[in-house]
Amino acid sequence: MLIAAQSKTPDHWYAIAERIADRIAASAEDHDRHGRFVAENYTLLREAGLIGAAVPVDLGGDGLDYPKLCGIVRRIGAACGSTALAFSMHCHQVAVAAWRWQHMQAPTDALLRRVAAENLVLVSSGGSDWLHGSGTATPVEGGYRINARKIFSSGCPAGDLLMTSAVLDDPAGEPTVLHFALPFAAEGVTILDTWDTMGMRGTGSHDVELKDVFLAEAAVSGRRPQGKWHPLFHIISMIAFPLIYSAYLGVAEGARDAALAAAQRKPASPALIALAGEMQNAFWTAETALAAMIATAGSASPGPETTSAVMTGRTVAGRAAIRTAELALELAGGGAFYRGTTIERAFRDVQGARFHPLQEPAQRELSGRLALGLDIDG
Hints:
single chain; alpha+beta; Butyryl-Coa Dehydrogenase, subunit A, domain 1; Butyryl-CoA Dehydrogenase, subunit A, domain 2; four-stranded mixed beta sheet; four-stranded antiparallel beta sheet; about 50% helix; disordered N terminus
């Protein structure tokens, strides 16, 4: 198991997810139409105890286990994709830190205790940085000056800590990526109002500017060579992406359910029945691929083969979720083409599944290299 024993029952958490989903579904269209961050939904998550729920019991959390955490993200995604996706970015930072503490005795306990005790929201910039990293770390007395612009920082309007990185150019060796957390309240950290997109419009995935931000040497939590696969990224790949794609499966599920409800009001023609069946096939594919990803995260060891398996699932689940929403639009008919419908919003939101690493060409290259026995770093 990825997370320590629970202090509350599964029924407790699923009931909470249902209540939150019911509340946020009503405002999802307004957030989408106006591109407004889902701030009040984060208030609900905090009040329900979900911000620190996946922190191990020994560190002050509730020990919500990993499959149930994925299930909660999925349920929220069916009601509001933006809330689910932004929340999944926080969840995977917590789940990765918990896994490292439990399996590697990594010193992530202080961070996890703070998340549980202070309801801290963690914001990831990892999707835009990935293996290469971005920004510069310039050595100064006692630490570094960080300058960077971090894109796709989902949930940043509610964020407390930005979990990010910058590149230290070492004249004596290869560039090194430094990993660290920065408080959003730190001098030089600014959220730029840049998020105006086709879908997932309420995630608040703005750019975050880091301008001459001081980072103490002691605050550096990790170092790795730039552009190469590192054990940390195999852990992130294994744990983060089932959570992220749980949000997209939830979006697809919401579209499917709405389309079936609309189709049931129509005459049951052979064409309608066949289209519903095709949609069910696509949804089954997405659901099965995600289930395999979650099972892998719960039982495998991080490494290239595990990363390849999870990223293959990411490609298959993402494709199938997108196809589910496409077919939902067709099955429901022209009424679903209007702005403000669940299916129209889901169709746009689910397109975001295309853009998380590893994007499909990079995933195929990784899996192909492994299959052929080649070095994954090229």
